[in-house]
């Protein structure tokens, strides 16, 4: 396994925790500011509506509320971090786009600058400051290690800093369930990664030994009891249960909860559509997927080609299961269009849409068009891909018939 892939996978261990120019200088903490903000009920009440707006993609409303928080607590990293979280969720619908990278990184750097001031000069805030330092560095590492950015050196550096401050923040886990989040992800992935990628063991032996079962339990606790990191923890828990732990029913429950709680979040919307499709609930998946396409057409914030590719493919499959080949062809063609729009032509959704279009053309007696689609699959896929082998087999069969 190449060094860059190792770094990327190691970057995946680093945590997704939970604002636009970096601040130049920070005022001293006033003597009467002795509250721990992440566990202060009054501050949480101020943030409740703003966080709901954030996760529901009402970014302007959330930003206005977080700016007030920054005005009131400018000496603390919390408001800068929350402002950065807005920029992060602007990136989430299509991580290939780098439009929001600069502002996101600026807010994370502001968080680090303010948190370092607390960490170095005010011992009473050391644990809380370490939490935000770990969170900000972890988020930066996650962005740098993204498959479309591949800034491995920066990702490794940010990850190392995140681990350093995580060890400090763990000393105060009794203060708030928020502080369990980073520990939960480290415990889980520090075991999962070497189990699934043995070549990474030499890299990870330098770090503390994790506990995958404990990490999963900690993640569940954060998703139940935390305030700021609760939704982020639920997203991670949903993906882990679905992709790694073979607990699709529980993952489905979380996806349904997230979609119903934040119905205007395109990431939760498409994940819910995907889960409905995966568990065979086509009657529910159909209107949910149609709504995604309608929101793209209306220009609703966050709804774009990535979500459209998912929804169109699901609708193509559902239409085909009903033997409505004309609708199926229309949706598969739409999936192809969206995939080409975001240059996702090696994805399964794209390749199997082309195969489906070839099948439909063949059934409708248009062998020339079918051959065109199967040939395109061979061109766009890799030789080891099942789609490549399938297309090759179909073309060979067509030649034998001819």
* Largest β sheet strand count, sense and barrel closure: none
Helix content: over 70%
Oligomer: single chain
Average pLDDT works out at 86
Radius of gyration, CA atoms, in whole angstroms:
23 Å
What is the beta-strand fraction?
Answer: under 5%
Succession of helices and strands: HHHHHHHHHHHHHHHHHHH
Number of domains: 2
Task: Quickly count the helices.
Answer: 19
Low-confidence stretches: 1-34
Distance between the termini: 44 Å
Q: Quick one: how many beta strands?
A: 0
- Structural class, from secondary structure content? mainly alpha
| Approximate shape | elongated
Produce the secondary structure layout.
Elements: H1 3-13, H2 41-55, H3 59-72, H4 77-91, H5 101-121, H6 126-144, H7 152-169, H8 180-196, H9 201-204, H10 212-225, H11 230-243, H12 248-261, H13 266-278, H14 282-298, H15 305-321, H16 325-341, H17 348-363, H18 367-380, H19 386-401
Which properties best describe this structure?
disordered N terminus; 2 domains; 71% helix; mainly alpha; single chain; Serine Threonine Protein Phosphatase 5, Tetratricopeptide repeat; 402 residues; elongated; 19 helices
Q: What this model shows, in words?
A:
- It is elongated and about 80 Å long.
- The relative contact order is 0.08.
- Helix 1 packs antiparallel against helix 8.
- The chain folds into 2 domains: 238 residues, no CATH class; 133 residues, Alpha Horseshoe (Serine Threonine Protein Phosphatase 5, Tetratricopeptide repeat), CATH 1.25.40.10.
- With 402 residues, the chain is mainly α.
- The N terminus is likely disordered.
- It is built from 19 helices and no strands.
